[in-house]
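step: validate -> pass
step: tokenize input -> pass
step: predict -> running
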Amino acid sequence: MKKATWLITGLALATSLTVTAQPQTEQAAANPLLAEWTGPYGGVPAFDKMDLKYVPEAFDVAMAENLADYDKIANNPEPATFENTIVAMEAAGEKLGRAFTYFGIWSSNLSSPEVRKLQMEYSPKFSEMSSKISQNKKLFERVKKVYEDSLKNPLDPEAQRLVLGAYEGFAMNGANLDEFSKKRYAEINKELSTLYTNFANNVLHDEENYVTFLNKDQLSGLPESLVKAAAQAAKEKDQEGQYAITNTRSSMDPFLTYSDERELRKKVWTNYYSRGDNGDEYDNNENIAKILQLRRERVELLGHKNYPEWRLQNRMAKTPERAMELMEAVWPAAIARVKEEVADMQAVANELGHGITIEPWDYRYYAEKVRQKKYDLDSNEVKQYLQLDNLREAMFFVAGELFNYQFTALEEGKVPVYHPDVKVWDVTDKTSGEHIGLWYLDPFARAGKRSGAWASQYRTHESYNDKITVLSSNNSNFIKPAPGEPVLISWDDANTFFHEFGHALHFLSSNVKYPSSNGGVRDYTEFQSQLLERWLSTDEVINKYMKHHKTGEVIPKELIAKIKKAATFNQGFATTEYLASALIDMKIHMADPKGIDVDAFERDTLKALGMPDELVMRHRTPHFGHVFSGEGYATAYYGYMWADVLTSDAAEAFEQAPGGYYDKDMANKLVKYLFAPRNAMDPAEAYRKFRGRDASIDALMRDRGFPVPEKKAQP
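step: predict -> pass
step: emit ->
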């Protein structure tokens, strides 16, 4: 089915859908959010014509046409075939796809009270629309007929997988229920859509409204780049002369790493980790409890005992038990490493005569001091060689070597953008000059932009009609520097930059026939992006692009050696904070939701797991947007670890190749089997074609410096 056009709830409004050409009606022409995309590169979004006043009409018209498209397919008097049913659904809802692309920009990058009001108004309406489609009996009968026919007379592999996905989409969403249960199922989805939007907006409120302002006497320990960025952030908040630490990870993380002011570290830490958990009107605990109850009720209607059992049936893991097996294989080694890390940090604090016991707001600060002591590695020294513009060019270099892509910056004004910070590149094949797509980059934090980093696509590749090129984007939240200053980022942030670019390359390299084949299996879709991180530390990238922002000198080999030697440093912290979130995600959905106290469940479960007192979950439950602002990562956050097993295993394949990470044969296999097929091929089959076997956990454990377990837990 066409990228869940009928399963849109809450913040899933921000999901970009495929857009292809279709005849332009007079009404569509009058509303720029519905109008066919025109201009160069196969047409581009008219971001320069975006105005919220057009949203209600655009959504109302597009929803009506979307329902009409599906009704027409359902009532086709001809016998159901692959072409007149499955392919016809691929073409449905084109105007809705365009409208969602624009509203996704507002939701994720330019949010405001007016945007949030529209989200609240339309989320239930989209849920109702989705239910009307997923519970359309005639439509499901046609899909089921095509599915059953394909079992007797198989189609080509991509078409066969497309049919399976369409059938499972209906079956998993209540198409086989009786009329009474269908009605309740639709009511639940409608309630959930409102709760998801509430959850996300509550978190955004706390991110925007909890800011720590510093004066010049409170800057001890902070690197110059952070001080300048904090001054600029304060200026933008009309507090010129002060320094603002905003309530986002990109601001919080470096402050906790370098600030000598312990009480301020505690304040910044508390602001960040209490988002959605402040006991006020923006508190998310009640929202979560309701979400859990409704999710359980909904899957029970389908005969499942809990949400993970339903959710994982068509994922790589298949069952929650297999996902838990992987996480539980790694957890003991992770928390054991945390104890070692805390002991090292406490020793440093004692040597310095600080007279403290390590608390969560101390972890990053003293970890950095241990890093300097053990490995003589200063993270701030490393940042001097990690300039954002250079790293972007490094990513282009890697894309050229592996994918044969060339990125050419477009002149300002060549295509419309939604904010002056956004820049655009034309992506072409280096050999043939063929246009592949466009890449948009929106790098800086601002009010109304959700925190974190992500990739999205405004248009996906397809070829079942005419070949359509890709429009992809990367969005980050780097702190905008003072005018004329470079953007210097941490090694971790550089990894994230490469990671999200990996998603963009996954979009751009798509070689599938149908729009829905661009989807993905959640515990596989992070693999490609995690794998691309490995090219950051290759010699080719280091020597060409890691240059001091003032002197232009290449980062010293001695410093790189220290970075690589310290590669497993702080893996206890990194692995434990991630796994704690993944385990809570799974366990809270397997628990009885009746009368659940969310804060107590989180606290008690972590205690039972032996969670160290000195750190917290990467995403505490009240602001765990992956899981509670929609359903994309619900009981699927484990997928990062699942993908990391594949990543470590695949990285070893490159390391063992004659040409290393730039081996041409391996690069060809990478593109052919791991990137280009998208979801047109079963992920397990795709990986076996690339590697010649299934992945094992051993490489992951070696990567993190953990002992390899005797019992193998593997995808």
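step: describe -> Residues 1-25 have pLDDT under 50 and may be disordered.
step: cleanup -> pass
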